[in-house]
Design goal:
Layout: E1 13-15, E2 20-32, H1 71-83, E3 91-92, E4 95-98, E5 108-111, E6 121-128, E7 131-144, E8 148-150, E9 159-161, E10 168-174, H2 181-198, E11 210-219, H3 223-230, E12 240-245, H4 248-267, E13 275-280, E14 285-291, E15 301-302, E16 309-310, H5 313-321, H6 327-338, H7 342-349, H8 352-365, H9 368-385, H10 397-408, H11 414-427, H12 431-437, H13 446-459, H14 461-469, H15 474-484, H16 491-502
Parallel strand pairs: 12-13
Antiparallel strand pairs: 1-2, 2-10, 2-11, 3-16, 4-5, 4-15, 6-7, 7-10, 8-9, 11-12, 13-14
Helix pairs in contact: 2-4, 6-7, 7-9, 8-9, 8-10, 9-10, 10-11, 13-15, 13-16, 15-16
């Protein structure tokens, strides 16, 4: 596989009243496992169901009900770990995280504090061609989600919906390797892309299937490098956690406003207090939620109802063999096999469905570069204008490949191809048949083209003299000939004959 080399981006620098400051960001991403059943029960995970309709006795914490691990959820977490080049721990265990909240029926959350299923990995976060950030993954542990408290349906009461209770989550914990708001959003996007390729999380942030807790701190230039050398966190500032972010735009805004808040405190002679905060998008500010808890605050202990989770290496190897080609590998292959730019390959691999569509067009059309140009510029542009995605495209890969073949063979020009594309997009049909029926085939007969050139030259003697003085004006004749032939003349042949006739 071709490796795409890259350099690390420069960290975001914010100018304070007294000094320059750099950002340091770590993230805890909660990704809902793509599974039809919950982590410890057979209840449905369907989104949008009637409140409290997807709740088993286990989810509701009825007396005597015991959790039973969902093997498929474990497999999905292992698959995610392998996709992030992470170590898979053959032995892991579940713990109880004890706290009270109305939407947590058990009075505790089953999680993995001490022995997570997945260990260290990494994500390469592309910022622009040749620029990327390597973000280290510290761990991925499995846990069950809580329910949802609803406070805006009645002025005097709150309601609880337990449909999400017990849904399997993967908490993906990064090292503090992210250095700016844009990088943070790009990191979330890359995680989402990888998991969608793997089929382990659909990444729908609007539905809460992917959300993040963002840890933000600031330090003086040079201090981060000391941390990297020593892994001593004392070189970094005190971090604050911004809880439950489910919007790329809000994540970036929250990081920026929180960093500036911390800078103002430090430069004012105060100290940043480690705490959990919430972001208010209406006021564009973060506000204190609670002081930062430590593990002992939750009285963690091994869950007595669940045995340690033991998996076999052969099972993990089987999952590894079933992994699809992932975004970085696919992007590198597109650059190598089709001669695409990194940018174009990145656009085409952003979503798996887009990549699959493009490869079909390239294979049938016989020209990867031309296929990429038509998929990205014409098809994606039109779909975006119509607010549609590739799964809803009225132009099939076979139809677009047929158009590419017609251009490649010289049967139609790029200009006529756009007209044919419009017909196929709005009315359907086979491109080759449309070209034949409407008489759009490109004129390649040099005799016919020469006749058209002679007529244009004879009718415009003044322009001929000007073109001989300034050869760039020959383009005017080319345009006139194309107009006279209804755009069907071969442009290359027209250029060559015009130049010859004018003696240029």
């Amino acid at each position: 596989m071709l490796d795409l080399s890259f350099e690390a981006p420069k960290p975001k620098v914010i100018a304070g009243a007294k000094h320059d400051w750099e950002l340091v960001i770590g993230m805890e991403v909660h990704a809902q496992v793509a599974s039809k059943a919950k982590l410890f029960s057979g209840a449905s995970t369907e989104f949008g169901a009637e409140p409290n309709s997807n709740v088993s006795f286990v989810d509701a914490a009825m007396p005597g009900m015991l959790p039973v691990i969902n093997e498929f959820c474990v497999e999905q977490a292992v698959r995610t770990g392998l996709g992030l080049k992470a170590a898979i721990n053959l032995s892991s265990a579940f713990d109880r995280k004890n706290y009270f909240y109305p939407d947590l029926p058990q009075g505790y959350q089953i999680s993995q504090l001490y022995h997570p299923l997945v260990g260290e990995g990494e994500v390469i976060v592309d910022m622009e061609p040749g620029i990327a950030r390597r973000v280290r993954i510290e761990r991925i542990h499995m846990e069950q989600d809580a329910g949802k408290s609803i406070h805006d349906m009645d002025p005097a009461m709150s309601f609880v919906d337990l449909n999400r209770t017990g849904v399997a989550l993967m908490e993906i914990v990064s090292r503090p390797d992210i250095r700016g708001p844009e990088e943070a959003a790009a990191y979330i996007a890359k995680l989402r892309q990888i998991m969608r390729y793997l089929g382990t999380c659909n990444g729908d942030m609007q539905n809460g299937n992917l959300r993040a807790d963002v840890n933000v701190s600031v330090c003086r230039p040079g201090d981060y490098e000391k941390y990297q050398e020593t892994q001593d966190f004392s070189h970094l500032g005190t971090r604050c956690e911004i809880k439950n972010m489910n919007s790329m735009r809000f994540i970036q805004a929250a990081i920026d406003v929180e960093a500036r808040r911390q800078i103002a405190i430090i430069e004012g002679g105060g100290e940043v207090v480690q705490e959990t905060r919430l972001y208010d998008p209406d006021k564009n500010e973060t506000r204190s939620m609670r002081s930062k808890e430590e593990a002992h605050d939750y009285r963690y202990f091994p869950d007595p109802d669940l045995l340690p989770l033991e998996i076999e290496q052969a099972w993990v190897d089987g999952i590894a063999e079933s992994l699809p080609e992932l975004p970085d590998a696919k992007k590198a292959r597109f650059v190598k096999d089709f001669g695409l730019s990194e940018y174009d390959a990145g656009v085409l691999t952003a979503e798996l469905r887009n990549a699959v569509y493009f490869e079909k067009v390239a294979a049938e059309g016989g020209d990867g570069k031309m296929a990429a140009n038509w998929v990205i510029n014409e098809l994606f542009g039109r779909l975006k204008k119509d607010d549609r995605d590739i799964s809803d495209s009225p132009v099939s890969p076979g139809q677009l490949a047929g158009l590419v073949k017609l251009i490649k063979s010289g049967d139609i020009s790029g200009k006529i191809a756009k007209d044919v594309f419009e017909i196929v997009y709005t009315e359907g049909g086979d491109p080759a048949a449309i070209v034949e029926e409407k008489g759009l085939k490109q004129v390649t007969d040099t005799g016919a083209i020469e006749t058209a050139v002679d007529e244009v030259i004879a009718a415009n003697p003044d322009q001929v003299e000007k073109a001989k003085q300034n050869p760039k004006l020959a383009g005017w004749f080319v345009g006139q000939v194309m107009k006279a032939t209804g755009g069907k003349a071969n442009p290359k042949a027209v250029n060559e004959i015009v130049s010859a006739k004018l003696g240029l």
